[in-house]
Amino acid sequence: MAVNSHLHCSMLNCSLRIHRKFTSWPRLLVTGKYFELCQLRVVLQSLTSEAATSLVHAFISCRLDYCNALLYGIADCQLQRLQCMQNAAARLVTGLRRTDHITPILKSLHWLPIRQRVTYTSWQLWCTNALMVALLGTWRSFVVRASTDVQE
Predict the structure, then answer these.
(1) Is 1 within the bounds of a domain?
(2) What pLDDT is stored for residue 148 in this prediction?
(3) Residue 36 belongs to a domain
(4) How far is CA 42 from CA 36, 47, 85, 93, 121, in A?
(5) DSSP β-bridge partners for residue 99
(6) What does the pLDDT read at residue 58?
């Protein structure tokens, strides 16, 4: 999916200038995160499992969730880099090998797969936006009624 080179997206205080293809965004999200996982591996050996999960969540999961609503509708092959990063983080926390199945581990950690995280965030933003529009409409009608009551 090619995007106009002068397009500027702004959402949730996240500003992204797209100069190439939008497909490079997942690659930019995981840049340097595998190196951080290698550094965390040394530290995690001396932590409890709860502390290790919190630390990995702070460094990796938050980065995966950062502006992921922009990825809604993108092809699964583009999200594969992010899913591999999440899988590596889950294996680091649990100490499993690369050949072990990851789905039960993600469920035990209560982590949604990347596609579902993106969908959840997008729907959450949509519902919040719809609620704000409804509330502003109610507030506007209240202000109009209050101003006409004052004039009378």
Answers:
(1) no
(2) 60
(3) yes
(4) 10, 10, 18, 12, 32
(5) none
(6) 85
pLDDT of residue 87: 92
What secondary structure letter does DSSP report for 3? -
Structure tokens at 39: 């550094």
The answer to whether residue 129 is domain-embedded is no
Contact (Cβ atoms closer than 8 angstroms) between residue 21 and residue 3? yes
In a domain, 94, yes or no: yes
- Please give the sequence-ordered ranges of beta strands (E in DSSP) within the chain, or none if there are none: 8-11, 14-17
Q: What is the 3-state secondary structure (H, E, C) of 101-126?
A: CCHHHHHHCCCCCHHHHHHHHHHHHH
pLDDT (tens, 9 = 90+) of the chain, 152 residues, equals 444 434 444 444 454 454 445 566 677 777 777 788 888 888 888 888 888 888 888 888 887 887 777 778 888 888 888 898 899 999 988 888 888 899 999 998 888 898 888 888 888 888 888 877 777 777 666 655 655 655 55
- Other Cβ atoms closer than 10 A to 57: 16
Residues facing residue 14 across a β-bridge:
11
What is the domain count for the chain?
1
In the numeric block, the tokens 């530290």 are attached to 43
Structural domain of residue 68, as residue ranges?
8-122
SS3 state of residue 8: strand
Please tell me the distance from the alpha carbon of residue 133 to that of residue 104, in angstroms, as a whole number. Answer: 39
